[in-house]
Amino acid sequence: MSKLNNLPGSLLKFVARRPGAELGRIRSEASRRRFYRINWGKKSLVAMVYPEPSRTEVQRFQTVRKIYHDHGLRVPGIEEILNDQVVIQEDAGDLSLQRAWRTSGKSERCRLLTACRDILDKLAAVPPALATVRLDRARLKWEMDFFIKNFVSHYPVRACREMELGANLTTLVETIEPECVFAHRDFHSRNLLVLGKEIVMVDFQDSLLAPRHYDLVSLAFDSYLDLGRFRELLLSGHESATNELRQLRLTALQRNIKALGTFAYQTYECRHPAYARYIPRTIRHIQGHLQELASAEFEVFTRYFSALSK
Description:
By secondary structure, the chain is an alpha+beta fold.
């Protein structure tokens, strides 16, 4: 077994009961949880370890996982809950949609996105009442403040004051229609694992009630993966009405701005410079949204993000 630090005793005992088992860390930079792969013989499992024991967090994970399972949404199974800190899960592999996309031909890419669209339809069909948390305007506003604090502070533009940007961000949040559908919240190519012919969702424990297009735009305008012309497989049918198209783009604009705040925080505060590579693509997405919206009320955004690309 690999020598690893700060492992819970319950996990060490679980591994010790399986002669020949080996434990290896799974890289997960942005999460406070730690993940380990347990290999022995032809079998493997994944241990999810919370930073400290929390019955509330483990119970929430169980509850949300059951919602997914009950509605035909594929997520890893639970093998055993060791205690309030360690959950042993099915190993769904490490082939993310982001990685699978690079080596896939046209037909396989179409199949993958068709499967993703089916998942989005199933997520939207989950009864909204099952969500116990809402991505309401207060939370959306917090995300925009997070962007100001962590991104704008590192990427200032002299012609755009923080106050002006803040006012535009408030307008954006207030223009997005209220939350109404059950959503994964982080539905992007790194949280979608390709397992044979299936797509398995991970990092789903923060599911909540969100604006109608939230999960759709999270993948369609993914910062980690540029779908290019294949994006239409996801958007087809969602841009038929003028207001629906506007709401889709407004939601995508907010989602991508939020992502910039996260990338800057991970890059500069958490010292994970790999996240900086996704900033240019996210800015291009944002510029595309602003061009499609063609709205004078977001003129400050246009000036700010145009300056960043020069």
